[in-house]
Amino acid sequence: MISPSEPTSNVHSETANRSYERISSKYDRTIGFFTGGQNLASRLAQLDELEAGDRVLYIGVGSGEDAIEAAKKGIHVTCLDLSAGMIEKARERFERAQLPGEFVCADIMQYASEQPFDAVVANFFLNIFTQPVMEQVLTRAVRLVRPGGKLLIADFAPPCGRITLRALHQGFYRASNVIYWAMGFCPLHPIYVYSDYFPRLGLDLQTTHRFRLFLKGPWVFQTTTAIKTDGARYTPSSAHSPEPKEIAAAVRDAYDFAAAIAAS
Ligand SMILES: C[S@@+](CC[C@H](N)C(=O)[O-])C[C@H]1O[C@@H](n2cnc3c(N)ncnc32)[C@H](O)[C@@H]1O
Predict the structure, then answer these.
(1) Is residue 153 in contact with ligand 1, taking CB distance under 6 Å?
(2) Ligand 1 in contact with 155 (CB < 6 A)?
């Protein structure tokens, strides 16, 4: 049994629950519009990491756009969200698709589970907290993963690529962060680099895949897979090996850079 965390600081009050409650019916369309669909693409790419029969917990699931796709693969999905409106949306989505799922309306820090999960998915969730609280929530998420299981995170990526792309990336992130903050969704903070916390949490970074804004823009989103290492089922994994698509993108950037230098 994994019991709830000791009462910590103010995770619940920090999470701007009312704001998510208000927007629950429009959330997916709004985010999809502002990100050219790449937010969803980064979440759906995770499905390759999950197998039929896995028990998977989606924390801060929202309306379950990604969780339903996992359920279609035969994964046993538990959806958890603090907002009753969001959980209701997720439940309706599963009902319409006639797929089974468990739905929990709770604060992640107060959630107790009989057994740890094969995977815990935290998509665009950890970034709604201040850094100290984000660390508590991340630690909590890791506790809910079984040894050898996976933690999957889709979220804003740290900037990479040539300088113009990095500047566009920072500009996009800053603008998004200010807008979401003004709407009461999250605090103002820099992009979190979750993998910095992995070693001390007993996580081994396995893969990172990046997603470009409007396909040609900066790689603003990423999906990260980490394995919880403190268990018998742990098998050492390789560091991230780039996908052919990523290599092609890097070569294209290098070529653009060289062409820009040659032209100047
Ligand atoms: C930015 S949305 C992300 C939703 C979804 N994962 C996605 O990628 O579209 C964050 C979600 O976390 C939920 N949430 C906020 N605080 C929470 C908490 N303490 N425990 C569980 N869920 C929480 C909100 O209600 C909201 O649905």
Answers:
(1) no
(2) no
Q: What is the pLDDT of residues 83-117, one digit of tens each?
A: 999 999 999 999 999 999 999 999 999 999 999 99
Residue 203 CB–ligand 1 contact under 6 Å: no
Return d(Cα 99, Cα 97) in angstroms, integer. 5
Of the candidates 76, 152, 78, the residue with the CA atom closest to the CA atom of residue 120: 152
pLDDT in tens, 188-238: 999 999 999 999 999 999 999 999 988 788 999 999 999 999 744 333 333
The per-residue b/e assignment along 49-74, b for 16 or more CB within 10 angstroms, e otherwise, is bbeeebbbbbbbbbbbbbbbbbbeee
Q: Does domain 11-263 have CATH number 3.40.50.150?
A: yes
Atom of ligand 1 nearest to the CA of 107: 20
Is the Cβ atom of 57 under 6 angstroms away from ligand 1? no
Domain-wise residue ranges, the chain: 11-263
Residue 148: which region, alpha, beta or left (left: phi > 0; alpha: psi -120 to 50)?
left
Name every residue whose Cβ is closer than 8 Å to that of residue 251 and which is 6 or more positions away in sequence.
none
Which two three-digit tokens encode residue 33?
């519009």
Q: Please state the pTM of the whole predicted model.
A: 0.84
Distance CA 209, CA 193 (A): 14
